[in-house]
Amino acid sequence: MNIFLIGTGGGSPDTMTAEAADVLKRASLIIGAPRLVESLPEGWGGRREAAIAAGDILNIIQAHRAEGDGIVCVVFSGDTGFYSGTRSLLPLLREAGLSPRIIPGISSVQLLAARLQIPWQDWKLVSAHGLDCDAAAEAAKDRPTFFLTGGKIGPADLCRQLRDAGLGGRRVAIAERLSYDEEKLHQGRAEEFAGKQFDSLSVMLVYPAEEGEEAGSGGAANWRPGIDDRAFIRGEVPMTKQDVRAVIAGRMQVREGDVIWDVGAGTGSVSVELALQTGSGRVYAVERDPEGCLLIGQNREKFGLKNLDVVEGSAPDALKSLPAPDQVFIGGSGGKMREIIELALDKNPRARICVTAILLETVSDALGAMEARGMMTDVTQVSVSTARSVGKKHMMMGTNPIFIITGQAPGAKASGDEQTSEG
To answer: Residue 333's domain is classified under what CATH number?
Structure first.
């Protein structure tokens, strides 16, 4: 028995490769989603069975295997390597001792780029198909962002997210039913499409921010590490200053999608910076002072950050229900430094830890807790002086030196190292 996993392109047989069409015509069994198997031309292949779940598809293949030989084709929309069911089916087939052959197809990314007559090699690719998605966090400022939609979230929902984050002015292109006779292409501003309805078979492209474009209420498109202190809503709660935050960002090297704990978050200035950097990831700002929690919430709203959660409570107890972190920033430990680090590393032994301290005793506590877990450590001291006017002259006024202690497990990939992922 020969098994083929086939990408059928945009949906119309015209977008299928000649190789895929030839195999499908000779197939004894074709399996796939109802829409796909029903859309194939009459006379192609023998028996057809509708199935979507990988386990169900495997069961059908195994039953056919017992019946005899032949060609079995499993069809997927678009390309087999772009958010395709191929990813979950392949391991099951291999475990069953089956060796399929893959025939790729034309993806919706390629089809949309062709319709818009622009290259797609620098696009950021995001799936919102059956998944939770924050369009404002995902939309890149400096390159186009492609959204594969469907399920709970469609183009209108994504446009509403952009509008609500103050990015309603971003240009977007929405394509419905690409390659079908009823294909439609819409172009305009996100805010124009927030209240409209689109076909479930739709994709969307968010263009890069235009020169001079306002970042909006969230400002996520324009902010960079080391945000001016004056941009934050402040109270009586201590706040990590601009220059120190810039160094912290450099030491942590946050990656897209990181889950981060900010322990002792204060006003949330570091939390905001981290949330802007992690994009589709999530930051949990843990603070025991109710006034601090209020300020963190206000700054979250000001910067339009949906990926920042405020957690009121004292560490380590407030951390126990949080998901395992990729990174932990500790700006205040309440005397529980060792317990906080132990809990973080129990949840993820490869988590990267960054601690700021003024007191030498805090430096000692942090180093001791990290080294007890075999972490590689590094200590940096930052001293910042700022010019103040003294009559007609200027004098440099220094602040307390800050220690920045970082630690990570031996052999762990450093934050910021290049990562690869499957499409």
So the answer is: 3.40.50.150
Domain that holds residue 145: 109-206
Q: Is the pLDDT of residue 423 over 50?
A: no
Which residues make Cβ contacts (< 8 Å) with residue 310, sequence separation at least 6?
268, 285, 287, 293, 296, 297, 300
**Prediction pTM value:** 0.60
Q: Quick one: pLDDT at residue 415? A: 47
The answer to whether position 374 is within a domain reads: yes
Q: What is the mean pLDDT of the chain?
A: 88
Spatial CA neighbour of 203 closest among 11, 57, 44? 11
- On whether both 319 and 360 belong to a single domain, the answer is yes
pLDDT for residue 211: 61
Are the C-beta atoms of 319 and 285 separated by less than 8 Å? no
Percentage, residues of the chain above pLDDT 90: 63
The total number of structural domains in the chain stands at 3
Q: Which residue has the higher pLDDT, 215 or 357?
A: 357
Cβ atoms of residues 375 and 408 within 8 Å: yes
Q: Please check whether residue 344 lies inside any domain of the structure.
A: yes
Q: Number of C-alpha atoms within 13 angstroms, CB side, residue 4? A: 24
Higher pLDDT, 312 or 423: 312
- DSSP labels, 263-309: ES-TTSHHHHHHHHHHTTSEEEEEES-HHHHHHHHHHHHHHT-TTEE
Amino acid, single-letter form, for residue 394: H
Residue 118 CB-half CA count within 13 A: 12
My answer on whether 263 and 394 are in the same domain is yes
Query: What CATH number is attached to the domain comprising 46?
Result: 3.40.1010.10
Nearest Cα residue to 265 out of 314, 222, 224, 212: 314
Answer whether residue 12 is part of any domain: yes
Long-range CB contacts for residues 36-43, cutoff 8 Å, separation at least 24: 36/8, 36/11, 36/75, 36/76, 36/77, 37/75, 39/11, 39/13, 40/13, 40/75, 41/13
Q: Is residue 40 part of a domain?
A: yes
Q: What is the pLDDT of residues 326-358, one digit of tens each?
A: 999 999 999 999 999 999 999 999 999 999 999
- State whether 366 and 244 are in the same domain: yes
The verdict on 375 and 276 lying in the same domain is yes
Q: Is the dihedral of CA 267, 271, 273, 275 positive or negative?
A: negative
